[in-house]
Structure prediction request, 276 residues.
Amino acid sequence: MGKLSGNIQLVSEQGSELTSLRGINELETGEKERIYAAIIPPRLLELLKISPATLCGPDGLRRATIIAPQGLGLARIEVKQHPDDPRPAFFLDITDTHYRQMDLSFCIISDPTAPHFAVDLDSSGNNNCFTTLGRNVPEEIRAMKAGLFPNQVSRGLRMFGEFFTLFERFVDSLAMDMIVAEPLTYDNAIRYEKYGFDYLSGRRLMERIDREFAPDGRLTARLDGSTPFRMPGMERSVHGRSWAIHDGIMDEPWEGVGIYKLIGVAAGVNTFTARP
Prediction:
């Protein structure tokens, strides 16, 4: 019996208890794909006209790719509106940790019909690995003005809450107690707080950011209009703060923030005190 109401231990068709991704990955392809497909939000499949049973579109072509190698404790799920689309509408990377926790490494749920912003490419058209290899500032300005957050290439579908409910129940069904993650940006960290996460590391940094974006704070004083990402008033929103931090307004890089969620427990952390 899991910690979440009505949840039960995940077992294989042969009756063996499953307690890790590595264990799931040892199953036959059809069985493990059925297990992983249950993490995909049903509303996304309905929106993209994908059969939840076959993961194919109306034309019979497969729309989902599930990578779950035997012998490894990891899984990747990609769902596209059409097989030839360059980017998935749903992308998930998860891994087992050495401490019987689930690492939510990466999750994107994007609107495939929305405009695309090439913030993920450098000036030569190469992947910039989340700006570690250079920024595409003109595209970032366009994305910011369109309401997107740093590193976001297109508008989302507001389905993360639906996904996370399924994901937490999945982790619980493996008899794991904890989900861990590393938010790539300030807004990611604030968003995870709303889903009940606490900090393994970086909470003091988050609290200091909040203080320094107060009306008389040091970071607020640096919102001097010197770049499009440092305009006065940006301290009042998560969107504005995140772009300013992305632009290097702090004296230190954004790094070293680790978060966790205990299954069935909402930590109640709020490091953006201006948020209702």
Q: What stands out?
A: The first strand starts at residue 64 and ends at 67.
